[in-house]
Amino acid sequence: MVILGMKVSFLIYNSYSLKDKRSVIKSIIKKTHNKFNVSISEVGAHDTLNQGVLGIAVVSNNRKLCQQTLDLVLKEIEDNGEVEIHSIEREEL
């Protein structure tokens, strides 16, 4: 069994309230979960208006498949026009 995860920190454009931030983050979480069937959650920067931190995890019996899935998730988040990724931390368990 292979478990890969990553923590993605990003800046949210046009976020002037926590409601704006929640809207963008919930949209990313819902689209990503539905499209890739990964575990995803907001894990940091809860009170910062224009910054978000998501934790994403994939479980499989194939390491390469896990890496490819995380790469596709990252591309999906980058292609979202509302955010700019600042840092990515990857982990393997």
TrEMBL record:
Source organism, top-level taxon: Bacteria
InterPro entries: DUF503, TT1725-like_sf
SUPFAM superfamilies in the record: Hypothetical protein TT1725
Protein name (record): DUF503 family protein
Pfam families xref list: DUF503
